[in-house]
């Protein structure tokens, strides 16, 4: 599905997604991906949504974002609460959703000028 919106100049936005990829600024990605308005981090984790770890939570807690969208693949899968402690300690918001919903929500929050990050498990 292609996403059409006015792209904030110079910022990363999702432009499409499918069963096994997302596109950011027209470039397809098929690996785990961390997307911030001004930065992309491919292969940010080697985990899957089922093997999300405390170290992954710490990476997300260290981001310059007020809210983190965790895209857990094709299905919604909540990580165990104890693995979210680094985010709670840093007072970061976290929303867990499937990858497609995370892409759409990221674009909306970015358009509102929010400090948002999308951490996606695509593999």
Strands ordered across the widest β-sheet: 5-4-8-6-7
Give the number of helices.
3
* Pattern of helices and strands: EEEEEHEHEHE
Taken as a percent bin, the fraction of beta residues is 25-35%
Report the C-alpha radius of gyration, rounded. Answer: 13 Å
Extended strand count: 8
Shape designation: globular
Summarize the main sheet. Answer: 5 strands, mixed
Gap between N and C termini, in Å?
19 Å
Structural category: alpha/beta
**Low-pLDDT runs:** none
Helix content: 10-25%
Task: Briefly characterize the structure.
The chain has 123 residues and is of the alpha/beta class.
Description:
- It is a single chain.
- By secondary structure, the chain is α/β, with parallel strands linked by helices.
- It is built from 3 helices and 8 strands, in the order E-E-E-E-E-H-E-H-E-H-E.
- The longest helix is centred in the C-terminal third of the chain and has 13 residues, at 99-111.
Keywords:
globular; alpha/beta; five-stranded mixed sheet; three-stranded antiparallel sheet; 123 residues; 21% helix
């Amino acid at each position: 599905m292609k996403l059409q919106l006015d792209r904030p100049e110079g910022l990363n936005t999702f432009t499409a997604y499918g069963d096994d990829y997302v596109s950011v600024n027209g470039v397809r990605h098929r690996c785990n991906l961390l997307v911030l308005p001004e930065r992309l981090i491919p292969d940010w984790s080697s985990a899957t949504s089922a093997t999300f770890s405390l170290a992954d939570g710490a990476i997300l807690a260290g981001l310059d974002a007020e809210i983190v969208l965790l895209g857990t693949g094709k299905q919604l899968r909540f990580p165990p609460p104890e693995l979210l402690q680094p985010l709670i300690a840093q007072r970061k918001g976290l929303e867990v959703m499937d990858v497609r919903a995370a892409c759409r929500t990221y674009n909306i929050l970015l358009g509102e000028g929010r400090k948002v990050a999308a951490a996606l498990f695509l593999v």
